[in-house]
Amino acid sequence: MRIAVCDDDLQEQKQFEEALKCFDTTQSAETFNNGTALLTAAKKDPPFDIVFLDIYMPGENGIDIAKELQAVSPETGIVFVTTSREHAVDAFSLYALHYLVKPITPEGIAEAFRRLTELHSEYRERISLAVGSERYTVFLDQICLLENDNHAVNVLLADGQKLKVWMSFNELEKKMNGNFLKINRGIVVNMDHIAQMGTDTCILQDGIKLPIAIRQSAAIRAAYDNYVFDRLSKRKGFKEG
Fold this sequence. Notes:
- It is built from seven helices and 17 strands.
- The C terminus is likely disordered.
- A hairpin with a 2-residue loop joins β10 and β11.
- The protein has two domains: 118 residues, Response regulator (Rossmann fold); 101 residues, CATH 2.40.50.1020.
- The chain has a five-stranded parallel beta sheet, with helices on both faces. A five-stranded antiparallel beta sheet has the order 12-11-10-14-13.
- α1 packs across α5.
- By secondary structure, it is α/β, with parallel strands linked by helices.
- The relative contact order is 0.09.
């Protein structure tokens, strides 16, 4: 397991390592005193399983660092560590695993790892994307839209972020799962992010309107209706027969 702690206070780092050893003597953490160093290390394989991130560091905001960390490595569990609960709402809006107030205890670490195990119990498909010189790992359920852009593909994520991936549209389309539907030439949408499917327009939950291929309109709408019906049936435990 790859564990990181990012805190500008060396004494706090030592206290964390002591608490970690009390929780599990077999575990150790990589330590960082600034967000830049943490993000550089996060781009290496394998990704961090869990990061304990101080919110208050000189010239840095842990919330902003966490946003960048999620973009680079969305599978990494983030635990915010601070002396105040001031940013608790911001922390959990980023789907943080936990929010610990110093001093860190073995019990607090144990709860963070319990939540990490719970998170990983639900498998989420992911994909690795090359964006310029950087590589991002993205969960498929985060992707709202694939849109062809000459020799690249614009990938729109649920948080509004847009990634320009330099690969063929057909190649990237093949890496998607059954949640995705091609509604027009060069346009594939994640059906979980559709707000309304019309006869000639598909509207995503964020309000984006996309044209539907007229000749395939009936087949596209039928495919979407079947998908929604299947999802509802599974949720309600519906069985035919």
